[in-house]
Amino acid sequence: MADEYPHTPGEEFPYGDDPLGAQAYFAESATSTTMPEFPLSVPKRLYAIGDIHLSYKTNREAWDCLRPHPNDGLILCGDMGESVEHLGLAFAKATTMFAQVFWVPGNHELYTLQSQREHGAKGLAKYMECVTVARSWGVLTPEDPFAVWDGDGGPCLIAPIFTLYDYSFRPADVSLENAVDWAREKDTVATDEVLLHPDPYESRQDWCAALVDTFNAKLETALKQNPDTPLIIINHWPLREDLVNLLMVPRFSIWCGTTKTNDWHKKFKAKVVVSGHLHVRRTDWKDGTRFEECSLGYPRQWKECLERGLDINDMLREILPGPEPPPAGEAPTYFRRLAAGGRYSGT
């Protein structure tokens, strides 16, 4: 829509919106750097939201309505926007409203827009540019030591990670070399293929492999040093392929993660895994671990929530304390199409 995208669409996004736009719609079910003087509240909770896409006017206006949580923490699961300015908007408001903020990169933060292709940071340099912005606001990133959460539901170790994807979420009869062409057969091509550069790596899958090795080692060390402290793993991309059910654009799966992380929730004894990317808000239980997809999405994808009188505050998902695991450690998927179900009431 003309009033919702501030850049020149044809210049910045040659493929228009991500293919996840239709998928999410049809899914199943300030600038201050100091904390204002709010009255303290109890308990101390941890919330999450991702994919707020501040390049859209509607989402920027919604984000500006975030209410104060002076004792609470907030996880930002990636895709704040495509520029350091978008990151600044996200972090300025979040750090004003919350006591502690955690961030992981999504694919959109890693974009080098067409207007920046000659002089803009690419790949790893773009990621580190984002990390620098986050640190300037006191936001914890995957490059910082994991922090202990001692609020309700704790103590837990908050573990932001960054894995990217390697096109391995594909059928067995589709080769890596043919994966993108296979997706293109159904008119599905991620904007990443043009705007997300792997520099200095040869390919995105090579960068993914290096990231997986790095964060596997970091998580192993954390588990060894804190054997009795559950982990809250945060990653923009889902850790498990079976949690990627994109009914409208199934072949988009190749840009959604790596099979190398499929067992990380068990390997690292995660209490909760928090992700975004899919633009399909859902809760899953696997092997006693709770998986929370916490995307907001593009304006049209949560328009119905707005029309029902909900706002950005209703879209925050409570991560901790959260509920007890189901008796068998498994439960049917709960799709949170209308709002995030911020406080738990049995779902």
TrEMBL record:
Single GO MF annotation: hydrolase activity
SUPFAM superfamilies, per database record: Metallo-dependent phosphatases
Boundaries of every Calcineurin-like phosphoesterase domain copy: 45-280
Gene3D superfamilies: 3.60.21.10
Protein name: Calcineurin-like phosphoesterase domain-containing protein
Organism: Venturia inaequalis
